[in-house]
Amino acid sequence: MFSFSTEVTSSSIRSDNALYKRTLKAYHLISKKTHGDVLEIGCGEGYGLDIIIKNTKSLTVIDKSKYTLNKIKKRYKKVTIINQRIPPLKNLKDNSFDVVVSFQVIEHIKDATLFINEIHRVLKPNGTAYITTPNSKKSIARNPWHYKEYNYSEIKSLIEQKFINYCIKGIKGNKKTDSYYSKNKRSVERLLQLDVFKIQHIIPAFLLKLPYEIVNRFNRARLFKKNNALVNSITLEDYSLDDYSTDTLDFFCTMNKKDIL
């Protein structure tokens, strides 16, 4: 479980299903939009690769986890694999990719401005980047794996420093996913009541990561045990793309390199 060096949503852990389907939805939203030379930044265990590789001329993936990349290398022989921490995007030339994909990554990045600049740099003219990130307004507790979570105005301000042509929409759920979210929120809030001295807000993030993972896994497992029918029933169709609203779970950002600032 803790073989990873970052936060992971698993496609194989049943208690992760609600979040897994939510993150997978983004890949399906771009399934017909990937083409030419494609770069995925922060591919994780690679559960979106089957979707985005279909229409590509070439696919390059970057991740800091050697563990996940070794698994991907065995399965995808023609994919170019780069093991590095980002930003910057080292050894990648300017104007190299038609499409850049980076889902649930920017919240982990300290220098987000450089990250956006690097995405712009490696995109070909008229190339398109797709990124997602959680809506901070829907966060239930501090996540020590996240350097910063964004609200709408913050992610908009960050993107428009470099891109003129962009669109920010939201991935939202429905009554079924709202029910899971509410149950999860109540469960987390009960656990947080044990933190009488509010230690989670005081100690450095790196000290909180392991306890967070343990408690988070325990909480999801308990939710699954009590609500397995609900958790198992959540599918891709329970998430949709819409204009930003208070119901937005994740921002879905499309950025096109038509104009250079």
Put the structure in a nutshell.
This protein is α/β, with parallel strands linked by helices and 261 residues long.
Strand content: 15-25%
Extract low-pLDDT stretches: 1-5
CATH class: Alpha Beta
Report the structural category: alpha/beta
Which fold name corresponds to the CATH topology?
A: Rossmann fold
CATH superfamily: Vaccinia Virus protein VP39
Task: Please count the beta strands (DSSP E, at least 2 residues each).
Answer: 8
Considering DSSP H and I runs of 4 or more, what fraction of the residues is helical? 25-40%
Instruction: Characterize the overall form.
Output: globular
Q: Number of helix segments?
A: 8
How large is the radius of gyration? 18 Å
Order of helices and strands: HEHEHEEHEHEHHHEE
| Mean pLDDT over all positions | 91
Question: Architecture in CATH?
Answer: 3-Layer(aba) Sandwich
Query: How many domains make up the 3D coordinates?
Result: 1
